[in-house]
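Figure 2 data, in text form.
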Amino acid sequence: MKKTYVIDTNVLIQSPNAIECFEDNTVVLPLVVIEELDNLKNAEGEKGANARSAIRLLEHYRQNGNLLLGTPTKNGGMLRIEKNYIDVTLLEDLPDNKSDNRILKVCKGLMDANATEKIILVSKDILLRIKAQILGIMTEDYTTEQVASEYSQYNGRSELFADEAAFLNFKKNGLSLNDVYITDEEGSRKDVQLIRNEFVLIKADQSNKKTQLGRFDGERIVALQYRKARPYGVKPKNAGQYFLQEALLESPENAPLVIVKGMAGTAKTFYSLAVGLEKILNSEKPSYRKILISRPNAQFDNDIGFLPGTEQEKISPLMRPIIDNLEQLLDSDEEERYKNEKELSGKIEEVFERGIIVAEAMNFIRGRSFVQTYLIIDEAQNMTPKQITGVITRAGKGTKVILLGDPKQIDTPFLDERTNGLSYASEKMKGSPLCYQITLSSDECERSALAMDAISRM
């Protein structure tokens, strides 16, 4: 049975090509959606860019047919604009002049006019979906870019058992998948399936206290290549940080993309900066020209053009977490570090003045290409799938892209743990030979005893 999908504006703002993602069904755009796109087309940042993309796609279909009568989509469906049903009556508490309620009128009008047809409202707005349900209108989220739920998402690591003899021989010869196993709830031995570049904690089956760390290269589990490294004097404190170090230190030719998920305090940003500084300042032949850092911010990115000051002055509030990490890296002496705040600030200013570290707003990164750059995108969970794709596909020769974030801490409207760009990239790039991934667990928090206790309790 074919369906009719009524599309909210926010769906097109997140995914401009959404009207082509409903197979052979009918897609209806209420006239108010066209008005909202018109109001957004000159907006700054991603919102305006996506509105313009959606408008260009509508123009393509307008040239090939009549949008009021309906024009075929590339998947065999139908696209049309609905200008009727402005006189449909809703509940008294839903005012006629509100855009959301005008969309609801179209849905209700289509239902009344086509009693046997399945009418579904598609919106990223939870409150609009609630109002639709109150009115008896079928509704759903836009799920085309939605990945698996949090607990089913790829975390880049596994724990396995190995026979004692194979375990002792691991560093020299590695392990095949036949050498390792997992156990089910009843303790029975089960075969293992691993994803390329998945990190592995191996336990000796005769003693769980004996562990070794490795990575599946697509054929065998091999020992970590950089386990003895100390980037910028930093030593890994847990298995997750050893895995993170391996991913970050690997060359941009072998691992141009690193995706790191984990909650606050797991040293995602700290370790990424440490490796970047090591590769630029402590290498005879620097691997990268610079460290480029960006942190998306839902409100700030759209308004940056209207703020006073230079770009660096505008984005300095967002870079404060980066400065906090640099304070610890550029002066490793904990007892002396803060005795001379002016000297410490001078060290940090120097790395920025020399161009070793460059901070840029996310709004200024779109559309550029990066060559031989160590690119850190912090708080990547606040990006859309389209934004994250735009960053990754801009990586040029010798560039390493590091996506950091916590999918549980999302500040951007209409994004959640299943639709944010970080989770989207993680699932789509799973198994790529060019991508290393690692999710740091809550018990790997190294910020402080209080931070770790709070994470476990709150």
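Caption note: Residues 148-223 form a domain with the Archaeosine Trna-guanine Transglycosylase; Chain: A, domain 4 fold (CATH 2.30.130).
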